[in-house]
Specification:
Elements (H helix, E strand, L loop, with lengths): L2 E4 L5 H12 L2 E4 L16 H4 L9 E4 L4 H12 L3 E4 L13 H4 L3
Antiparallel strand pairs: 1-3, 2-4
């Protein structure tokens, strides 16, 4: 089963590429946990854009995780909003799908 380990040294560009490779779905990364406003700079590390007070650390994610749960856990850990989209990044994934199934939506 596909698994992805995320830590503060990971750049946004690398996170999106590794996410796509592991699960086949796309990942959108925002500067705010609400996913409103500015997208995160691809060159930034997660630690550099982490919200004040967010714990960060390491997050291990498997392909059978539910999209909505992943997005919530990521926002809680990093204070950064993410949204999972289909493989060609044209439509947001259903929050009840798994990360791997989202690629096929």
């Amino acid at each position: 089963m596909a698994e992805l380990k995320i830590n503060g040294r990971t750049t946004v560009r690398k996170l999106k590429a590794e996410f796509k490779e592991a699960f086949g779905s796309s990942l959108r990364v925002y500067m705010s946990p609400s996913c409103k406003g500015k997208m995160a700079d691809d060159a930034a590390t997660l630690a550099s854009i982490r919200a004040e007070g967010a714990k960060g650390g390491e997050l291990a994610v498997k392909g059978n995780k539910i999209v909505g749960n992943f997005e919530k856990e990521f926002a809680e850990a990093w204070g950064i909003g993410v949204q999972v989209a289909n493989a060609d990044d044209t439509k947001l994934a259903n929050n009840d799908s798994t990360l791997c199934a989202a690629a096929k939506e």
